[in-house]
UniProtKB/TrEMBL annotation:
Protein name: Ectonucleotide pyrophosphatase/phosphodiesterase family member 5
Compartment(s): Membrane
Essential cofactor(s): Zn(2+)
Topological category with respect to the lipid bilayer: Single-pass membrane protein
Location (main, coarse): membrane
Signal peptide region: 1-22
Length: 477
């Protein structure tokens, strides 16, 4: 009789399958690192051995489409919420909210007003609500009280804190008595030097080499703390950088009277708030003013930018062509490198690489959207995603085959792209989850059929007899 070995093997198969669909706690650790302004092709333009070490032993996405406007705060909030700027509300580094009657200005560091951030819920809060601990080291918004919460651990923003000290904090939090499972680490370069030198400068070589050494240091410290093989490390950035020139400047003073408007955000996307009764005058003066400037009324901003449905987007939006800067006049600060332009431009695109137990090895993917990172993070952390504009399915192939391909959160929601109404969602289906459940069910059924057939055939009445027994009372009635 061969039934017993069959039973055992089927039982084992069913057990293996069911455990394969629950996440191992070791796979639920994530360290997200952003090197501000790291353009996608710096990896090929300059020697970057540590970045390439991560790529060989992990995954790499060649083209990451970030969000418009391609500025620091909007994109960092997208990375941790999966939302377009019009949905998460951090629409620029410099903003004015006419409903709150409040300003948000990066240069003045008055960014700590919770009201600006509460259009969304960043991943660290969702992670904490699920009972985990999070830590942010200088991540934009990571020291702001949002929905009444700070991260479990955080460093108050201070650009003079060294990279090494930031790494030390992250390692301390991952190995503390109440350890984090989510760490976020931010570094200001190569953005600062990219603005200063321009990305085409040969002096960018040493800047990128320094970043590569910093990544090497992080890897070394993770290995030393025995975290390298258990933490899912994701390295990305917010935007790229393009070369500018003093020859390519659009001076607003040539076309507009300063008394007729307030300039909320400057370059390369000028956010213009006309004074009362001056809208038509301002719009018409600027509409055809310069061949390298495209001017939109707020409601006419192209759909693909998802940049119109928010009170913080100003009535007139003037967008410069790549490499052009908008100034009020030439005496204003000028930058040799800039970003903020159309997110379809390759030079605005960031990097994306990852390494860890959940990721495939030596795998290159062609393209993703930066909004897709958020559902990926939720998957890795095993938390339920808030409504977002990304797609987990779009990045699922970055994960290795041993990694469960789906968890219950996939029953949750993805914001319909370009939906007029925040709150209207499409269901993100989970085929692998469905296939897994189906396979598990089939194995269980087959197991019972064989069990019944081989062990107790004599005790199972023939189907015809059963039907006859059921039918009898009816016949008697
Ligand atoms: Zn930036």
């Amino acid at each position: 009789m061969t039934s017993k070995p069959h039973m055992v093997s089927f039982a084992l198969a069913a057990l293996t399958l069911s455990t394969a669909f629950s996440l191992h706690p070791d796979q639920q650790k994530v360290l997200l690192v952003s090197f501000d302004g790291f353009r996608w092709d710096y990896l090929y333009k300059f020697p970057t051995p540590h970045f390439h070490y991560v790529m060989r032993n992990g995954v790499h996405v060649k083209q990451v489409t970030n969000i418009f406007i391609t500025k620091t705060y909007p994109n960092h909030y997208t990375l941790v919420t999966g939302l377009f700027a019009e949905n998460h509300g951090i629409v620029a580094n410099d903003m004015f909210d006419p409903i709150l009657n409040k300003s948000f200005a990066l240069d003045h560091m008055n960014i700590y007003d919770s009201d600006f951030w509460e259009g969304a819920t960043p991943i660290w809060i969702t992670n904490q609500r699920a009972g985990h601990a999070s830590g942010t080291a200088m991540w934009p918004g990571g020291d702001v009280k949002i929905h009444k919460s700070f991260p479990t651990y955080y460093l108050a923003y201070n650009e003079s804190v060294s990279f090494e000290d930031r790494v030390a904090k992250i390692i301390e939090w991952f190995t503390s008595k109440d350890p984090i499972n989510l760490g976020l680490l931010y570094w200001e370069d190569p953005d600062d030097m990219g603005h200063h030198l321009g990305p085409d400068s040969p002096l960018m070589g040493p800047v990128i080499s320094d970043i590569d050494k910093k990544l090497g240091y992080l890897i070394q410290m993770l290995k030393k703390a025995k975290l390298w093989t258990v933490v899912n490390l994701i390295i990305t950035s917010d935007h790229g950088m393009t070369q500018c020139s003093e020859e390519r400047v659009i001076e607003l003073d040539k076309y507009l009277n300063r008394d007729h408007y307030t300039l909320i955000d400057q370059s390369p996307v000028a956010a213009i708030l006309p004074r009362e009764g001056k809208f038509n005058e301002v719009y018409e003066a600027l509409a055809d003013a310069h061949p390298n400037l495209t001017v939109y009324k707020q409601e006419e901003v192209p759909e693909r930018w998802h940049y119109k449905r928010n009170d913080r987007i100003q009535p007139v939006i003037a967008v410069a062509d790549e490499g052009w800067n908008i100034l009020q006049n030439k005496s204003d600060d000028f930058l040799l490198g800039n970003h903020g332009y159309d997110n379809a431009l390759a030079e605005m695109h960031p990097i994306f690489l990852a390494h860890g137990p959940a990721f495939r090895k030596n795998f290159t993917k062609e393209a993703m959207n930066s909004t897709d990172l958020y559902p990926l993070l939720c998957h890795l952390l095993n938390v339920t995603a808030m409504p977002h504009n990304g797609s987990f399915r779009n990045v699922q192939d970055l994960l290795n085959s041993a990694t469960p391909k789906a968890i219950p959160y996939t029953q949750s929601t993805t914001l319909l792209l370009g939906s007029d109404i925040p709150g209207v969602y499409e269901q993100e289906e989970s085929y692998p989850y469905f296939i897994g459940v189906s396979l598990g069910s089939i194995i269980v059924i087959v197991f019972f059929v064989i069990f019944i057939k081989h062990l107790i055939p004599s005790q199972v009445p023939a189907l015809q007899d059963m039907q006859a027994e059921i039918a009898q009372p009816l016949l008697q009635a």
